[in-house]
Design brief:
Layout: H1 3-23, H2 38-52, H3 56-68, H4 73-89, H5 93-104, H6 113-125, H7 130-146, H8 151-166, H9 171-185, H10 189-204, H11 208-221, H12 230-243, H13 247-263, H14 274-288, H15 293-306, H16 313-326, H17 330-343, H18 348-360
């Protein structure tokens, strides 16, 4: 099957997938209803006006009235959460923490529950009390372990990593912490993030073989399209292979991205920015590091065929044209340069093409 045929099949299936998703009620994104109740709405309006004009104490009081007059839990929680944010802006962290603790203590997870737990931990870390820091550490870790797919957990992980990885002078301690936490969340998307951290710690401490092994395990365990770092890990593996003088291994890593793009018929899959860059990089490695002209020309053509609307097409056209002209294929090279100028109005590749057309293509 040609690249064009593959694209047509993917487009057809993508349209079918879209139709199915529109028919499936479970695929619709949830919407938040508007707050209601005249007294509640009036208090909210007053709070927002006070906040806009910098009257933070008055805003905090108005948000409390809005919470007390709310007819629904969702409206009450939102008003209290906004009150906590205003209190934090005032520097009144004890009262902000108290409000967040109240919201976060609810067993039934609502819209602001996890965010309140996260904010309470953040505010505790701003103080000087070691016991409060320890409480924040426990709460952040609980967010990561019990709610690993939430936005709050991702933020909690960043806060924990600042202390245990970025702020840790002992790489072994940082590595031990990372591996221990990974063992607890390995089945979640945070497990993938922690494997990236582990690989980077190993790489920067000179343990390249172990870093490569972790990255390869990460690629296998968190594949495309679910793996958020899948393509970045393959790119890093290619970087390391090039640094180690293994250009063919680098091509192998990059080709995994191209192969998935060619074969992917998965609902929810998409072209990631690194994929067309990988296709162009393959051609350049064949050209510059392996001196394999035929393979480079094939790779340039593949990059243009597989990613016809990507940002690398003009570079692929220019570089293939220049390589063909260097091999004595002037007519074919000039045709590619003219194709580039016709299809791309701006860019350094177009400027190069115009110069060569003027001097060499008559």
């Amino acid at each position: 099957m040609s690249s064009l045929e593959r694209r047509l099949v993917r487009a057809s299936l993508a349209r079918c997938a879209l139709a199915l998703s529109l028919l499936a009620g479970g695929c619709m994104a949830p919407t938040l209803s508007k707050p209601r109740g005249a007294q509640h709405l009036d208090a909210l309006a007053q709070a927002e006006a006070h906040q806009h004009h910098g009257r933070l104490a008055d805003a905090a009081d108005a948000y409390l009235r809005a919470a007390e007059s709310a007819e629904r839990r969702v409206d009450r929680d939102e008003a209290l959460y906004r009150r906590s944010r205003v209190l934090a802006r005032m520097g009144d962290y004890p009262r902000a923490i108290a409000v967040c603790d109240e919201l976060g203590a609810q067993e039934e997870i609502a819209r602001r529950t996890l965010r309140a737990r996260l904010d309470a931990a953040r505010y505790r870390l701003r103080g000087d009390d070691p016991s409060e820091h320890a409480r924040a550490e426990r709460d952040l870790r609980a967010l990561v372990v019990t709610q690993p797919e939430s936005a709050a957990a991702r933020s909690a992980l960043r806060l924990l990593a600042q202390k245990h990885v970025d702020g840790q002078e002992d790489d072994q301690e940082a590595l031990a912490w990372t591996r221990q936490l990974h063992a607890e969340v390995a089945q979640s998307s945070l497990g993938e993030a922690l494997m990236s951290v582990e690989a980077e710690l190993l790489r920067t401490s000179g343990r390249r073989a172990e870093a490569i092994a972790v990255l390869e395990q990460q690629v296998a365990r968190y594949p495309y399209p679910q793996g958020r770092r899948w393509d970045d890990s393959l790119w890093l593996l290619a970087d390391m292979a090039m640094e180690d003088g293994r250009p063919r291994d680098a091509i192998g890593y990059l080709q995994k991205m191209i192969a998935v793009h060619e074969e992917s018929l998965i609902i929810g899959s998409y072209t990631r920015p690194t994929m067309p860059k990988a296709a162009l990089r393959i051609a350049r490695i064949y050209r510059d590091d392996l001196a394999d002209v035929d393979a480079a020309l094939d790779a340039y053509a593949e990059a243009r065929s597989e990613f016809p609307r990507s940002l690398v097409v003009d570079d692929a056209l220019a570089e293939e044209a220049e390589l063909r002209m260097a091999q004595g294929q002037r007519d074919r090279g000039c045709a590619l340069l003219r194709e580039l100028v016709e299809a791309h109005e701006v860019g350094s590749a177009r400027r190069r093409a115009e110069t060569r057309i003027a001097t060499e293509c008559h």
